[in-house]
Amino acid sequence: MTTDLNVGGDVVLLPIIIRFRDAPHYLGMDKNRFNDEVRPYLIEIPIGKQGIAFHRLELDRWAAQYMARNGRPAKRSLMEVNYGA
């Protein structure tokens, strides 16, 4: 398994450690929701004296578990229902 992407010929490395300021955005939510619903279930990684980070794969696992518990198929459009598209 690789953790890089090839975008326009350039290799983009995905960080394994994501700082607290970026973690909510990584999961597509605001900081308050992250603090309430996600952070209690993660291991915090201290960075320097005040910094905190999280392991990217642990964030991914949380998202996969959330999706398994709460996910549902998208609503089908009227056209798809009528014409089987």
Could you characterize what this model shows?
The protein is of the alpha+beta class and 85 residues long. The chain has a domain of 59 residues. Helix content is 39%, strand content 22%. The protein has four helices and five strands. The chain has a three-stranded antiparallel beta sheet with strand order 3-5-4. A hairpin with a 3-residue loop joins strand 4 and strand 5. The longest helix has 15 residues. It is extended and about 60 Å long. The mean pLDDT is 87.
From the N-terminal CA to the C-terminal CA, the straight-line distance is 35 Å
C-alpha Rg, in Å? 18 Å
User: How would you spell out the order of helices and strands?
Assistant: EEEHHEEHH
Mean pLDDT: 87
Widest sheet, order of strands: 3-5-4
Alpha plus pi helix count: 4
Instruction: Report low-confidence residues grouped into runs of 5 or more.
Output: none
In percent terms, what proportion of residues is strand? 15-25%
Shape: extended
Helix and strand content put the structural class at alpha+beta
Say how many strands there are: 5
**Largest sheet composition:** 3 strands, antiparallel
- Approximately how much helix is present in the residues? 25-40%
Topology:
Layout: E1 4-7, E2 10-13, E3 17-19, H1 23-26, H2 31-38, E4 45-47, E5 51-55, H3 56-70, H4 78-83
Antiparallel strand pairs: 1-2, 3-5, 4-5
Features of the shown structure:
single chain; 85 residues; alpha+beta; 4 helices
Produce a short descriptive summary:
This protein has about 80 residues and is of the alpha+beta class.
